[in-house]
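User: Design a sequence. Structure:
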């Protein structure tokens, strides 16, 4: 197996003649020694470029960044600066967005089980719209409504009944789903009628999200056809064609580009009046490839005839995706980025279970030893956002790097943080 393919790395990545890798003009090794490991590093200009690419492909005020993919105040601020709206799926995500100075009306409220408090928060802060997910939620909005006050703009989340080629845990558009109003059993039409008749909500559109990490462009074609037909029959003004566009995690993966995705959706929507507003909600495709995780190797265990285990100083607490979805990653040494990865190893973490695996069977450079650095690329989405304190491991710091400067945007947790909620 050859050296790591730089197409998986953030766009500002460079490698010098000695094989030392830099991102944003700063050596990965220097960031690791200065900020410690494990460390999430984001190429800030890469994230900005992805936001701009999405806005260019879909139009101004049509791109809603799904903050669940990666959120902290710096990220919320960056997306807002780039003219992207924010999808918040909980009161917690909304709180972070508001704390970053993003106005409520630049946010869209999501979630399949929004509490009364979350709905009230959305209404009070005048979100752009609420994506309503269930009849219970319509009732909660009814109960919250104060006569004479403005009704919140809502879209209804529709489950179009399409199957996508992704992991079952992240498929969301099939009939057997906890999300949204099913089209095929009539719930979608009943919800549209009910919302139209209600003074408590201002029904402006419909929404769908078919799954995450979708790599087959035909899946978007199928879902958009169903949604565009339904949308045309309602005469509503707004249609959200969700996502989620997949990304390449390994050298074997191929993902459609943002423009290819936009072209498919636009083609599906050509019959609609020009007044129809189409939104998309990318999360992963904005941030995944902008981020890497840097670890330090702690132990190497060779079992003759079986395999080599390389244990790093993080694991399933900073990247749950391999354990949850058997997701695959590449791995390499940022100090030997041009080295042939001609040995194989299983990269594991420091947690107390055998499923704590980061890469199941990775090509690695030869003679990995304790003290070496290892990087997993494409960890910018659903890495930090699903990080946890299993085994009371402290969550890593997050660094943004650009133009030769690296800055901490989320500090590393301390041991004291681990007891700060105890009473
Ligand atoms: N909109 C809605 C309503 C969603 O539920 C999601 C993702 C998105 C947008 C963003 O989709 P994206 O562009 O990121 O694919 N933890 C999983 C991913 C779960 C995604 C759930 N919803 C993972 O690590 O793969």
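Assistant: Done.
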């Amino acid at each position: 197996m050859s050296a790591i393919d730089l197409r998986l790395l953030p766009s500002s990545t460079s490698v010098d003649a000695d094989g030392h890798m830099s991102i944003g003009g700063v050596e990965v090794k220097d960031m690791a020694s200065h900020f410690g490991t494990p460390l999430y590093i984001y190429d800030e200009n890469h994230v900005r470029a992805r936001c701009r690419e999405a806005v260019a492909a879909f139009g101004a005020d049509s791109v809603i960044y799904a903050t669940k993919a990666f959120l902290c105040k710096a990220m919320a601020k960056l997306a807002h600066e780039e003219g992207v709206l924010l999808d918040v799926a909980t009161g917690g995500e909304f709180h972070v967005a508001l704390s970053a100075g993003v106005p409520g009306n630049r946010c869209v409220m999501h979630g399949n089980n929004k509490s009364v408090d979350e709905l009230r928060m959305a209404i009070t802060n005048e979100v752009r719209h609420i994506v309503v997910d269930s009849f219970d939620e319509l009732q909660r909005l009814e109960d919250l409504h104060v006569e004479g006050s403005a009704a919140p703009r809502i879209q209804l989340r529709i489950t179009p009944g399409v199957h996508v080629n992704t992991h079952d845990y992240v498929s969301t558009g099939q009939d057997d789903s906890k999300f949204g109003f099913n089209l095929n059993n009539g719930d979608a039409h009943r919800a549209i009628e009910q919302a139209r008749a209600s003074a408590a909500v201002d029904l402006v559109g419909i929404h769908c999200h078919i799954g995450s990490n979708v790599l087959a462009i035909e899946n978007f074609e199928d879902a958009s056809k169903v949604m565009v037909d339904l949308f045309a029959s309602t005469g509503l003004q707004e249609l959200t064609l969700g996502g989620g566009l997949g990304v390449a995690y390994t050298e074997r993966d191929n993902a459609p580009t943002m423009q290819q995705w936009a072209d498919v959706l636009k083609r599906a929507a050509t019959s609609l009046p020009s007044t129809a507003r189409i939104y998309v909600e990318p999360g992963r495709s904005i941030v995944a490839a902008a981020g890497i995780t840097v670890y330090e190797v702690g132990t190497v265990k060779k079992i003759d005839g079986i395999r080599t285990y390389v244990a790093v100083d993080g694991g399933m607490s900073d990247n749950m995706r391999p354990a949850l979805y058997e997701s695959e990653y590449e791995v390499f040494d940022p100090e030997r980025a041009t080295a042939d990865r001609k040995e194989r190893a299983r990269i594991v973490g420091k947690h107390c279970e055998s499923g704590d695996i980061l890469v199941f069977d990775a090509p690695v450079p030869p003679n990995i030893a304790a003290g070496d650095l290892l990087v997993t690329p494409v960890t910018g989405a659903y890495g930090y956002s699903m990080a946890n304190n299993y085994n009371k491991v402290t969550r890593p710091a997050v660094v943004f790097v650009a133009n030769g400067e690296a800055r901490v945007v989320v500090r590393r947790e301390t041991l004291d943080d681990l007891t700060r909620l105890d009473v």
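The pocket of LLP is lined by residues 66, 68-69, 87, 110, 170, 209, 212-213, 242-245, 281-285, 321, 325, 381-382 (CB under 6 Å). The first strand starts at residue 14 and ends at 15.
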